[in-house]
């Protein structure tokens, strides 16, 4: 599944891959898409992020977008969720920075609606009990 929003002359997209009950969400856009941050969450755990260094040694700030999306969808997650984010707009304007939050909000709401109508009824894993061992 893929959602896209365009405002202020750039597009941000969220591509979603369901892996069983877990979700991998790739948020990219602008002139140079990349992976700047990795954000993880579940319905019942705190959001955590790893930020990668950028070309100039500073750390990417794309987690601002991923966390916004994560907070919107968190209550509806069927399993774990990993969000990679990397949006770069060359010579970004203040207006484009401002709308990036609105775009992420819109993407989060679209993903939330999709989650509510998607069936994640997959078989539960079967594990050995404490009294059992592999043969």
UniProtKB/TrEMBL annotation:
<dbReference type="Pfam" id="PF21758">
    <property type="entry name" value="PAC_bac"/>
</dbReference>
<protein>
    <recommendedName>
        <fullName>Prenylated flavin chaperone LpdD-like domain-containing protein</fullName>
    </recommendedName>
</protein>
<feature type="domain" description="Prenylated flavin chaperone LpdD-like">
    <location>
        <begin position="7"/>
        <end position="116"/>
    </location>
</feature>
<dbReference type="InterPro" id="IPR048844">
    <property type="entry name" value="LpdD_chaperone-like"/>
</dbReference>
């Amino acid at each position: 599944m893929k959602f896209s929003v365009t405002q202020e002359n750039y597009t941000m997209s969220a591509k979603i891959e369901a892996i069983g009950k877990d979700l991998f969400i790739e948020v990219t856009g602008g002139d140079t898409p990349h992976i700047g941050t990795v954000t993880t969450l579940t319905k019942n755990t705190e959001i955590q992020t790893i930020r990668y260094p950028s070309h100039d040694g500073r750390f990417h700030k794309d987690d601002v977008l991923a966390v916004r999306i994560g907070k919107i969808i968190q209550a509806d997650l069927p399993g774990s969720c990993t969000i990679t984010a990397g949006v770069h707009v060359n010579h970004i304007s203040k207006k484009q920075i401002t709308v990036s939050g609105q775009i992420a909000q819109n993407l989060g709401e679209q993903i939330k609606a999709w989650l509510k109508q998607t069936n994640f009824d997959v078989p539960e894993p079967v594990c050995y009990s404490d009294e059992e061992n592999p043969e």
